[in-house]
């Protein structure tokens, strides 16, 4: 750049390298060194991107676009390169995707390697296409619409079309309806694309226009692409304009939407479902209930379950969202009952409570024919309501809580009427338990109803993007109440598994919540499948899943961590073996068990320090541990043959299976050894389960067998966890990859050369 030949030195002292110039080898070279340094390059400015611009029948240009330069100046340079005059008549577009026009607002989206194309300016393009829309020739209008539709999604172009009354012209073509084929379909598509920009409000549409679009929904003989577009337009009208939405609701019969849903066309089904959910959202609660009741009577639920959810074709995201909305609106019908507390002065609600009580208990006095005094009757009812699990003798006080309000009473009545045997078994089974161990039916039902309302988002507004619907909801009538019936029996089952008391009620409900949430997340397709899966998710399984998830969060189950744990196991098992043998060397005091009864005699056994002898002998209770020299009996470890535990021990077999001996099975172990030519046994009854584990592990280690006790497993897990955390202290907050990084391939040759004559600056 200074006009010198390579290697020509500059006069005067060398000037330092500027901040933008850096050698590819990382050096900062002086100006005279640039000519000799093979790695010197000039870093391009950050606001310059390298792009390609193409034009039909022309060689593409590769340019460096300066984002700081005005777009008009860039266009002028591009046009000059192709010898094009009047650069204001041209514009740049993205060559891929929706071919959006480049403006000063979106030019930052141009990145290195982007491909642009030079096209007609949006105002000239809009003027030309608008002229085509006004053509008397049907073919001319069709050609203009074909060019308009792909450009209508661009905001810049849409504003130009709308400013030239393009929407009114499209509306006229749609209202005329001269061509029910491609022209009408293209007109509806272009109209929808232009309206989606929000430049013009949907409320400005005329009533005749909306009624004409309704006609296209209700007609049969037309192009197959027209009804989905008309349904999509009416959906937008219904969601955006309450007044026009009422017009659509009155003009489009629900039966017509059901007809469209039954056509095996996914696009048509999706748009029909979209309009249906839009009409339901715009209706009042009373109207919505009438509409849903009518749709269920027409077997819409069964059709959705069989032909949409279980269709051979995969379900689209839009249909999944509309099914979510339909589920949410249907469950929303429960909200008034959920928000209404029980009225203690309502005769109907008092009678419902009495029906609930009578379904569980025989009515004393009435069943035997003898009369009861009013005080006796009130006392009897209060006691039975207590047995039902109400916290108060007056159940109205329990049901004043909102939520769940009357919805909890509805659930309890549904359970008692539709599963009477399960209801009676639940109540009577818990009535026979101790007071602190009984599972309260009413209290559990109230809390379970609140839990289901939270899990199913009853009463919450619909999300605009959610797709989380439950297929089971469409496979079952009264799905909420049926889900409650499964949940209340699950509560009783989990209560027994946890051996819970009244103080554990909240803890049990947390487990039940987790069981229901995990099973609902699996999206079972039927209630029976849900029941099977949720009953298989026992309390023990929940604890196991919690432990697994905790380990995943800590990164303990990552493949590299698992590999590290496997490498640490032999060393830690050796540590556990050493601890077990040391415990045997310390010795333990055992009680002697005769063949007839338990005696008070004690004996002491320990392992010699050299691990070659078991030494044992009798001792008195309360005496200090004996020394090795004072123990008269010895058993060489070399003579030991096998270790026996539980019912295999001879001293347990001899006692039979008496009830008083069953507690000894879990603590008994024996050593078989050679005594001359005979086999003899040294029998033990451990004083505790822990001592049993320690001694059986130690004896297994002496015999060369694996230590397989539960205590060994727990000790090994604890040691592995601690050792792994210590090893990973330096990697805290560093993500550990699932797989090791790939080893790069070797170089093509090993003829490496380094020029030592080039000194580092």
UniProtKB/TrEMBL annotation:
Residues in ELMO domain copies: 348-520
UniProt name for this protein: Engulfment and cell motility 3
Transmembrane helix as UniProt keyword: no
Pfam families from the UniProt entry: ELMO_ARM, ELMO_CED12, PH_12
Gene: ELMO3
Function of the molecule: Involved in cytoskeletal rearrangements required for phagocytosis of apoptotic cells and cell motility. Acts in association with DOCK1 and CRK. Was initially proposed to be required in complex with DOCK1 to activate Rac Rho small GTPases. May enhance the guanine nucleotide exchange factor (GEF) activity of DOCK1.
This protein's UniProt keywords: Apoptosis, Phagocytosis, SH3-binding
Domain of life assignment: Eukaryota
Annotated PANTHER family: ENGULFMENT AND CELL MOTILITY, ENGULFMENT AND CELL MOTILITY PROTEIN 3
GO biological process, one term: actin filament organization
Gene Ontology molecular function, alphabetical: SH3 domain binding
Keyword Hydrolase among record annotations: no
């Amino acid at each position: 750049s200074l006009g010198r030949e390579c290697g020509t030195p500059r006069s005067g002292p060398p000037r330092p390298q500027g901040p933008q110039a850096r050698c590819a080898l990382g050096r900062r070279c002086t100006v005279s060194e640039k000519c000799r340094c093979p790695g010197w390059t000039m870093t391009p400015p950050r606001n310059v991107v390298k792009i390609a611009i193409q034009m039909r029948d022309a060689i593409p240009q590769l340019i460096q676009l300066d984002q700081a330069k005005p777009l008009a100046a860039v266009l002028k340079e591009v046009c000059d390169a192709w010898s094009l005059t009047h650069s204001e008549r041209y514009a740049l577009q993205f060559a891929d995707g929706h071919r959006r026009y480049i403006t000063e607002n979106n030019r930052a989206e141009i990145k290195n390697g982007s491909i642009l194309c030079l096209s007609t300016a949006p105002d000239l393009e809009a003027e030309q296409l608008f002229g085509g829309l006004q053509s008397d020739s049907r073919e001319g209008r069709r050609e203009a619409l074909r060019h308009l539709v792909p450009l209508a999604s661009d905001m810049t172009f849409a504003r130009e079309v709308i400013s030239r009354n393009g929407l009114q012209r499209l509306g006229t073509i749609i209202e005329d309806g001269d061509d029910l084929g491609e022209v009408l379909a293209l007109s509806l598509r272009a109209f929808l694309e232009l309206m989606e920009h929000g430049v013009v409000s949907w409320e400005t549409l005329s009533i005749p226009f909306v009624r004409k679009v309704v006609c296209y929904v209700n007609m049969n003989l037309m192009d197959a692409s027209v009804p989905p577009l008309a349904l999509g337009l009416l959906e937008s009208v219904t969601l955006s304009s309450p007044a026009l939405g009422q017009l659509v609701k009155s003009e489009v019969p629900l039966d017509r939407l059901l007809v469209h849903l039954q056509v095996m066309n996914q696009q048509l089904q999706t748009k029909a479902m979209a309009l249906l959910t839009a009409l339901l959202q715009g209706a009042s609660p009373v109207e919505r209930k009438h509409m849903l009741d009518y749709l269920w009577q027409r077997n819409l639920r069964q059709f959705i379950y069989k032909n949409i959810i279980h269709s051979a074709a995969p379900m689209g995201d839009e249909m999944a969202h509309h099914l979510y909305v339909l589920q949410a609106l249907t469950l929303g019908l429960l909200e008034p009952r959920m928000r209404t507390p029980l009225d203690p002065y309502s005769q109907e609600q008092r009678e419902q409570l009495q029906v609930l009580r009578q379904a569980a208990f025989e009515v004393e006095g009435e069943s035997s024919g003898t009369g009861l005094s009013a005080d006796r009757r009130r006392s009897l009812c209060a006691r039975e309501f207590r047995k039902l699990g109400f916290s108060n003798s007056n159940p109205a006080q329990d049901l004043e809580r909102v939520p769940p309000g009357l919805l909890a009473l509805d659930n309890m009545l549904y359970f008692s009427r539709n599963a009477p045997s399960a209801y009676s078994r639940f109540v009577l089974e818990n009535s026979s338990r101790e007071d602190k161990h009984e599972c309260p039916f009413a209290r559990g039902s109230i809390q379970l109803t609140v839990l289901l309302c939270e899990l199913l988002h009853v009463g919450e507004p619909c999300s605009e993007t959610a797709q989380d619907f439950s297929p089971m909801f469409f496979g079952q009538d009264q799905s909420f109440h049926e889900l409650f019936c499964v949940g209340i029996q699950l509560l009783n089952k989990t209560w027994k598994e946890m051996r819970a008391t009244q103080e554990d009620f909240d803890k049990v409900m947390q487990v039940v919540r987790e069981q229901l949430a995990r099973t609902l997340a699996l999206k079972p397709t039927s209630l029976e499948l849900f029941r099977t899966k949720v009953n298989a998710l026992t309390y023990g399984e929940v604890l196991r899943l919690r432990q697994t998830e905790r380990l995943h969060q800590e990164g303990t189950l990552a493949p590299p961590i698992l590999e590290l744990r496997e490498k640490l196991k032999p060393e830690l098992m050796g540590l556990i073996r050493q601890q077990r043998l040391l415990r045997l060397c310390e010795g333990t005091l055992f009680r002697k068990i005769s063949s007839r009864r338990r005696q008070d005699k004690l004996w002491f056994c320990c392992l010699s320090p050299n691990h070659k002898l078991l030494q044992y002998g009798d001792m008195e209770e309360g005496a200090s541990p004996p020394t090795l020299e004072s123990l008269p009996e010895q058993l060489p470890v070399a003579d030991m043959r096998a270790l026996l535990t539980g019912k295999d021990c001879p001293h347990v077999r001899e006692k039979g299976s008496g009830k008083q001996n069953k507690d000894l099975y879990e603590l008994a172990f024996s050593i078989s050894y050679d005594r001359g030519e005979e086999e003899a046994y040294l029998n033990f009854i451990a004083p505790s389960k822990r001592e049993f584990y320690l001694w059986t592990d130690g004896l297994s280690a002496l015999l060369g067998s694996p230590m397989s006790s539960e205590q060994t497993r727990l000790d090994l897990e604890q040691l592995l966890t601690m050792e792994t955390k210590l090893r990973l202290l330096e990697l805290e907050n560093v993500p550990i990859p699932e797989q090791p990084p790939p080893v790069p391939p070797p170089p093509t040759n090993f003829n490496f050369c380094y020029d030592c004559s080039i000194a580092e600056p």
